[in-house]
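Input:
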Amino acid sequence: MSEPVLRVENLTIDIPMAQGTLHAVRGIDFELKRGETLCIVGESGSGKSLTSLAIMGLLSKKMRCNAARLDFSGIDLRKQSPRAMRALRGDRMAMIFQEPMTSLNPAYTIGDQLMEALQLHRPVGRAEARARAIELLGKVGITAAESRLSQYPHQLSGGLRQRVMIAMALMCEPELIIADEPTTALDVTIQAQILRLLADLQREMNMAMILVTHDLGVVARIADKVVVMYAGEVVEKGSAREIFETPRHPYTRGLLRCIPVPGKTRPGEHLGSIPGIVPSLIGHMDGCAFRSRCDVAEVACASDVPVRRTGEDHMYRCIHEVQPGAPS
Amino acid sequence: MLMFTLKRLGLAILVTFTVSLLSFSLLFMAGDPASAIAGENATATDIEAIRALYGFDRPFLVQYADWLFGALSGDFGQSYYFKMPVSTLIAERLSTTMLLGVCGISFALLTAIPLGVAAAMRPNSLIDRTALFLSVMGQAMPSFWFGLVLIVVFSIQLGWLPPSGSSTWRHFIMPTVVLGYYAMPAIMRLTRAGMLEVLNADYIRTARAKGASETRVMFKHALRNAVVPVVSLAAVQMGFMLGGSIVVESIFALHGAGYLAWESIGRNDLPTVQALILIFSLFYIVFTFLSDLVNAWLDPRIRVG
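Output:
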């Protein structure tokens, strides 16, 4: 139980481009145990999706991925052959994507696609795979599961398709499930249902879960640990409680100001926003990447930024030990 | 799926009747058929006699109905030139043409699809460039010239293959290559473009995330979605090969239906021309119908239509 399912140290992802190398992910670390939910938060382009693809071994061949450590259940993922990675993918680690509308193959039935996920990894016959597919469709809350098997993706709504995607990811009972913005493309009412479903299944099957999102409201509900990424770096990480109660990094604090709080935020009141855009990640970068948008930036931010720790796991990257005006 | 099939079948039958009406009208659009049969030196009474003999003096619709019922039972009348039933004449030639067409389209599909898939898997690689080169060659080379080059090399210099005739399977090798190579570039380019588009789709990433092998991703998940327009194109080209392989048939002296059509037009042999036009159109209609069915089987979203 105490042995982490996933341990990532100093992961970097570089993308060679015509104008120079784009350092999309610049040295991130985290670890995750069975039964835990880790949320990776950040805005578009912060490298959170690439990080999850790197763990799955699904990065495009043009990207270069390096890590001091990339261990999954004691297996060094850096040293696995493509064939060995294939055997792990879908079996012991599975992934759910952002776009349920286009993530299922339009040419095959739901049943075919669910059964394929099991039959790629287990020597089971059609009848057995079918039974498992029906079982899982029931588990993700799809009624009349048996008749759904012969339906095609275009006959289902977005919410149903995402449930099918979840069922497909769980066919082989993975130890690790990565959900990359699984609710972004769905209606708000459906979002809550899908999140609850994911959280319940994660607990029930005792999986480790990585949830990639830019929605802190989502994080508050289900995260055990939070990693806040900015411009390819971890700017702050810690337990969900620490991040929400004593956020240290100005970026995290800015993100938190963007969510309305029931009872506290009055109608018509301005929500927080973070001015500016993410800096270009091409070429070498010194100092804090956030300084161009930070309201407490100083000259010293352009040189090395210390990594600070408070408590056991809470870590952040800022020249300020305590934020001006923050509760310490 | 049954409704879809019936709908398409109904459409195909309607088109067939329209085409039959058009091809029958040709007889009258091409001038006075009676004087054509009678020849240049015929007198006015001769022409009138012929007109009565062949029934050209009857109302147009009566003649059409007469011809149509004959055609439905396989009787297309007598050839003016060969003085024998058109149906017997065509049946002989059609088997050669059909064999050549099937071989040609098979050759085109079997080279174009694997090449297109391979090119899409590694864009701008050596194999992609080679495939592009081959397809540009195929597109640019006229069939008659390519056919003659093959004859010079394989029949005259090497002596491996017979230059003309249709008596053995070896006679069909060079015509197949010439005909197939002409159809190959378009199919190859369409396969490549379709595959490139499909390979960026989210469901391909899903298939990889499931742990499917590259071969499985390519052929099970990608090709089936990419090949839908290719099927439609191949159907049209198949129709073209059966009706328009005149050039290839004349070079290799394969006396097929295309060659017969060309000869018959020259001889004003209208019943033969009419029958051939109807049959060639039927090929197009049948292949389009079949390709619709294949596409509906490949892509369930089409079945709704």
